[in-house]
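Support reply, case 0932

Customer input (verbatim):
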Amino acid sequence: MTSHPIGRRAALTLGGVALAAPALAQTGGYPNRPIRMVIPFPPGGGSDILGRLLAQRLGDALGQPVVPENRSGAGGNIGTDVVAKAAPDGYTLVTVFNTIVVNQFVFRSMPFDLRRDLAPVARVALAPTVIAGGPKLSARNLAEVVEITRRQPGTLNHGTPGLGTITHVSAELMDSMSGGKLTHVHYRGTGPAVTAAVSGEVELVSAPWSAVEGLVRGGQLRALGSLSARSSPLMPGVPTVAEAANLPGYAVDNWGAVLAPAGTPAPILARLQDALRQAIDTPEGRQALAARGIESDYGDAAVLARTMEEDTRRWEPVLRAANIQVE
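Our regenerated output:
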């Protein structure tokens, strides 16, 4: 006997409802109230730009408001600690960049344990990051910058969003590989560091493309090199640092992710993971990120956990040798 096409569709639909019901029951109707998205850096930087976009699009996917909240300080540790100590119920999340991995090797004391106190939800983005020159920089390109740092160590000032942040250690890595020396001037976040470069307070700044794109296009800053292993399609014509400074093997990929408190129930983590995929791993999501100078780079919790472990193994020997210490 041949079943009717409409009957088959109805059966499939009912089957889907039957399968979905236990999952919904496991989450206890989650979410049924607003979610807090902690952004552990000040407004204006790449973390803030990504966090606010994620909050908007994740809220659309979940059907509940996701409210961004800036809690800055200590290289992102203060805001991240708020989440590490929050109730593990899915209503408090944090947007982080790979600075969170670096922090455990540069801060003398950490208020949380990255592996023990936080749960990976998903990797969400790559933030193309650039070293840029301000109006007081006489060098025309990064090769000339490196030459100055070798001949006159410490005479060029480089702005960072904080001691031990990924853009700080990426510049330290450039110093180490080139044999030169920049003077690193630390600010409270990317926004203030970029402002310092535009005003001429420092000659150089390293920052996510999302934070400097308009300034580069407007001529206030000059993009000298991309920190990543490959040139970004979002920064056409900008060479990698490896190419521009003749430093083969130099590469620092600046990934962004979402974490939750450890102990958050697996069904809730799965719900968040699926909602983040809906938010950014679509043509519309990729376009929304690209419009802000960020590349969509979705990976589930297992991918994020592996990324964090790989970065831990990579940065620990480099940072122990550099002996960067933050109180």
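We compared this against your earlier run and they match. Two observations from our side: The first strand starts at residue 35 and ends at 39. The longest helix spans residues 5-26. Please reopen the case if you see a mismatch on your end.
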